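Notes for week 9. Today we move from apo structures to complexes. The key idea is that a small molecule is not decoration. When we ask for a structure prediction with copper (II) ion present, the ligand SMILES becomes part of the input, just like the chain. The input block below holds both the sequence and the ligand string. Read it once before you look at the output, and try to guess where the molecule might sit.
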Amino acid sequence: MLARVLTGMALGMWVVTYACLAQAYEVIDVKDGGVISGVVKLSGDAPAPEELLIDKDPEVCGKHLPRLSEKIIVDKGTKGVKNAVVYLVGVAKGKAFAGPNAGAADPHGHGGAGEAPVSSGGEYTLDQKECGFIPHVQVIPAGGEVELRNGDPLMHNLHSYSMKNSSFNESIPGDGKPVHKKFDYPEVIKVGCDVHKWMNAWIVVRDNPYCAVTAADGSFTIADVPAGAYKLNVWHEAASKEDLKKLTKDVTIEAKKEVKVDLEVALK
Ligand SMILES: [Cu+2]
C-alpha cells in the first residue's frame, strides 16, 4: 500500500517536473544563427477599409474622422498584411527576448515595436490615445508585464479576454495612473474598452522570442535562429483558426543562411 502511494507520488512529481521542463525556454548565446524572412500576403481581394462608428465622446475620439478599423490593413501595392504575427513554436533554446523598444527606431515596425511609445523604463506599453489602443498588436514574453496607460482626458475601461492568464476589467480615469499587468502564459489576448466599443488591441504572449509582427507592407524578419528544424505559424485577428492551422510550415534553418517564407492568409 505504502509502495503504491509512493509510486503515485513519484509519478505525480515526474509529471509536474516534466510539465515545467517542457515549458522552460533556455537563453543561450546564439552564434551563426540563421534568418527567416518573408511577407504575409492577403489571398483574394482586399476588402474596403471599414469605417468605425464613433458614437461616444466625439470631442476626444472623433478628432480625426473618418476613423478606419485596424482589423484588416492591406498594402494596396503588395497585398502585404500588417499586424500578422509570425512565430516559431516549440523552440527549446535560443536568443533572449530583445525587449519592448528593440524595433522602435525602425519605421517599418519590425519586431512589433515600431508604433509603440518609447518608454523610459523599457517596459511593454499599451497606450490609449483619442480612444484607440497603441499598438494595435504586440508580442510580449511569457512572464512579461505591460503598462496600461490612458493618454486621454476621459475614462477608459480595460477589459481583457483570456483563457490561461487571469483576465481583468477595470477603469482608468482620464490621464490617470497607469496600471500594470503581468502575463505568465503564452496565448493571444484581446483587450477592449467597454466604454468605447470600437476600441481593441491584441497582446500575443509567447514562450520564445522567435516571432515578429508584420510591418505595413506585410514583411517580417526573425533573426538569430539556431540551426535546426522548426515549425512556423502565423496568427492574424481576422483569420480563422482552421485556416491558420493549414498555414503551419516546416522550416529548416542553416547557420548564417536566410530562408524566405511567404504566407497567404484569408481574412474576413
Ligand atoms: Cu475607451
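The first strand starts at residue 26 and ends at 27.
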